[in-house]
Amino acid sequence: MRPNRQQAQNLMSVLIASRKLYNCGLEELVSHYAETGKHLHLYEQDKKHGKAEHPDLPEVVGDTTLKRLHRSFANFFRGCKEGKKIGFPRFKGAHRWDTIQMRDAGPSLKGNSFGAPRQCGGKIRVNVHRPLQGTFKYARFVLRPSGWHLQCVCDIAPSPLPVQANAVGLDMGITYLVADSTGRQLKNPQNLQRSAEMLAKAQRRLAQCTKGSNRRRKAQRVVARHHKRIVHQRQDTLHKISRAYVNGYQVMAIEDLRPAHMVRHHALARAISDASWGQLRQMLTDKAADAGRQLVAVPPHYTSQNCSVCHTRVQKSLAVRTHVCPHCGYVADRDVNAAQNILHAAQAARARTGPSPTGGEGLRGHTR
C-alpha cells in the first residue's frame, strides 16, 4: 500500500482503536463469565459497542474485531474438547496487534487503488502484486516493518493436475533440507545462520539505545526488517521445494514428525527451527489438496536405522552420515536410506487402507 502521511496516520489510529476494543471485549467476556457462569454471545456484546461508543472506529472494523475475539474463544474451547494445547485468549499489546480486517463484501480493489472506509483514509493507492482470482471474500490491512500491506482473501476452486503413477519418500533433515527416495538431496540454505552476524549487529545497536527514544524505534524497525527478510528467504525455498514435488509425484510420503517436541534438544533447537519442517509439511498438504495429490504421513520410528533393502536394523549415531548394511552390503546416504524406508512404509499403509479419496494427508497410524 502507498498511503500518504494523513492516510498512514488514520490507519494507525484505527489499528490502535481496534486493539483497545479487542482488549475491552476480552475483559467483558471474562467478567461476564465470572459473574454469571455463562458465555456472553457475540450479538449481545456487539450491541454494546456501536458507533456511539466508538466514534473513532469504522463500524465494519468494530464488527470484525469482536468476531476475531469470539473466534479465539471458540478455538480455545475446541482445543479443550480435543485435548489440544491452545492458549486462552490474552490481551494484546502494541506489538501483538497489526491487522485491520474488513467485512465480507464486494471487492473494493479497482485499478491501483483500494476503497477503504473514510476513517481509514478513503481511497488508498496500492501496488497490485497480481490480479484477483476466484471469488473475493474479504480484505485486511497488515502493518509490517516495510509498511502497510493489503491482503485480499479469495476462494479459489481446486485445479487438479493430471494423475501420475509414481510415488516418492521424503526425509527432512538439517544438513540436507530434503532427501528423497530417488537419491536427490536438497541442501539446507540455513537462512538464519547466514544472516546471524548481520542480525547480531542490528540487535547490539538496539540494545545500546535508550528505551522510548526515536533511535530505539528506528533500530527496532531495522531488526524487524532483518527478521522479515529471513522469513521471506525461508518461505521462498519451501514454496519452490513443495511445488516441485507436488508437480512431479502423485503420492508423497513423509515422516509424522513433531518439531515442537524436537526443539527441546538444546544443541539442535535453532537448526530445527530454521529448517521449518512443519511449514514445509503444511505447504505440501495445501498444494497436494489443491492438485489432487496425496500426502501420507508415516511414523518416524527407526527410519534412519533400518536397512531399506533387507530391513535389518543397523544402529548408528547422528554423526554417521552413511548407511552401510553388514548383512546385505547396501551402502547409501543415511537420509536417502531413510527416505526409501519412509516410502516403503507409506506403500504398505496404502496397500492396507487404500488411497485417500480426498487427496489430503493419509494414514498416521503405526506401520510394521
Walk me through what this model shows.
- By secondary structure, the protein is an alpha+beta fold.
- The protein has 2 domains: 5-155, no CATH class; 167-353, no CATH class.
- It is built from 10 helices and 13 strands.
- It has a 5-stranded mixed sheet. Strands 1-5-6 form a 3-stranded antiparallel sheet. It has a 3-stranded antiparallel sheet with strand order 2-3-4, with no helix packed on it.
- Strand 8 and strand 9 form a beta hairpin.
- Helix 1 (5-36) crosses helix 3, helix 5 (196-208) packs antiparallel against helix 6 and helix 6 (214-248) packs across helix 9.
- It is globular, with a radius of gyration of 25 Å.
- The relative contact order is 0.09.
